[in-house]
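Researcher: Here's the sequence for the chain we discussed earlier.
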Amino acid sequence: MKLSKKQLENLSDIITRRDDSLKAVGALEMRKAQQLNGAYAVELEYEEFKKGMTEKYGEDVQIDMQTGEIVSSSNTLKKA
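Model: Thanks. This is the structure I predict for it:
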């Protein structure tokens, strides 16, 4: 007993589409991993910058992102 030609073609088509889908998922996972690594690198860069600013201006400061003004809510701003 064997599959008909039409059944074999159908099965082959299904397997090809399944393989293509799995490859696409793999490619997406690879891009996801790359994006996560990039986000982690930016987070490390942010933490380093934050550490430097904390050492320079103190713990309790806020930065106005429009003007760059540094404000301390406890009035303990270190002098730069």
